[in-house]
Amino acid sequence: MVISEDQAMRHAVALAARGLGTTHPNPVVGCVLLSDGEIVGEGFHERAGGPHAEIVALADAGERARGATAVVTLEPCNHTGRTGPCAQALIKAGVRRVVIAVDDPTRLAGGGTGTLRAAGVEVVTGLRRDEAERGNAVWLTAVRRGRPHLTWKFAATLDGRSAAADGTSKWITSAEARADVHRLRGTVDAIIAGVGTILADDAQLTVRGAGGEVRQPLRVVVDSSGRTPSSAKVRDESAPTWIATAAETGRGPDGRTDLNALTTALFDRGVRSALLEGGPTLAGAFLAAGLVDRVTGYVAPKLLGAGANALAAAGVTTIAEAIDLDLTDVTRIGPDLRFTATIRQKES
To answer: How many CA atoms lie within 13 A of 300 on its CB side?
Structure first.
């Protein structure tokens, strides 16, 4: 079947998505090779240390890659890491044209476009850029901002309560929603919670019930004064843990653990995606600091009328300062609703 480069890029974006959750700390990338409008090779980056999408597609195409057009979601890399430079591999294979959705923003891997052009390969950039950026939002946010892409996850009743008036909160949402949270945990590099959550719930912060081989995220406890008990489940051997104290990160404007320093330190540890599961106070602090990129909420069809709110002070004092969200997904999970939204950037 003959397809256009635009259609090929759409397919490449879909291919890239198959690597979500397994490529840490690398981006997700998809590649399609076209010859006379027909797909002769395709591939995606599956895991760090494994072949990049372009290499998989070239192997799939074999000799048919000569004279073909490579349609790839991210600029081919230009350096040798655990694998060789994809730009050189495309040149060696005889690819005549490369169509790229998003330029690589990193100094280490960027520059593939220049290498390709210097070798006489025609290069076009920007095709379906927005779509490809959305698919790679986690990695792009991390490398552009020098901190992990952060998703705040919460569970609440329909009237926004995270606990009843007597403090009870087990369980607000259904077993189906809780299983979905474990799936979500399995897609990130770190899970962040406050010491209050650890003291109240003795949360373990691990991925459970996912089946198969599971990469446990780093557990991060925001604990300004080091109150996490030595017997806490979060200190067990089921996953690595960092107790982030103010003595280690420095203190923020509120006198507690500096959240900007904490997220920078996580990036330096190789964390590119993180899930914030702390209580309402910690969530408000992260939002006020502008460190949240996405919100995933599980809303149960229940009403409490009193009790703890899902979110505490987040730096908003008037309606004009409200944190606006752009909904990207609303799905029913058992009896509950799960919504996902991105933080809308304020116009300067």
So the answer is: 21
How far is Cα 157 from Cα 41, in angstroms, rounded to an integer? Answer: 49
- Dihedral of the alpha carbons of 27, 33, 34, 39, in degrees to the nearest 10: -100
Q: What is the DSSP string of 120-186?
A: T-EEEE-TTHHHHHHHTHHHHHHHHHTS-EEEEEEEEETTSBSS-TTS--TTSS-HHHHHHHHHHHT
Catalytic machinery residues = 54
How far apart are alpha carbons 15 and 45 in whole angstroms? 9
pLDDT in tens, 77-129: 987 666 679 999 999 999 999 999 999 998 766 689 999 999 999 999 999 99
Please give the Cα distance from 224 to 36 (Å, whole number).
61
Chain mean position to CA 143: 11
Tokens 């799960």, residue located: 338
Nearest to 171 by CA among 156, 183, 184: 156
By C-alpha distance, which of 286, 288, 198, 207 is closest to 242? 198
What is the arithmetic mean of pLDDT over 188-195? 94
Structure tokens at 173: 């949402």
CB contact at 8 A, 180 and 209: no
Q: Which whole-number Å values give the CA distances from 29 to 56, 78, 90, 98, 344, in the listed order?
A: 11, 15, 15, 14, 25
Q: In what order do the strands lie in the sheet with 30-35?
A: 38-44, 30-35, 69-74, 97-102, 122-125
Q: What angle do CA 188, 190, 197 make, to 5 degrees?
A: 120
What is the three-class DSSP state of 337? strand
Instruction: List, in order, residues 6 or more apart from 293 with CB less than 8 Å away.
Output: 137, 141, 149, 150, 151, 342, 343
99 Rama class: left (phi>0) / alpha (psi -120 to 50) / beta = beta
- Which amino acid appears at position 164 of this protein? A
The rounded distance, in Å, linking the Cα atoms of 32 and 12 is 6
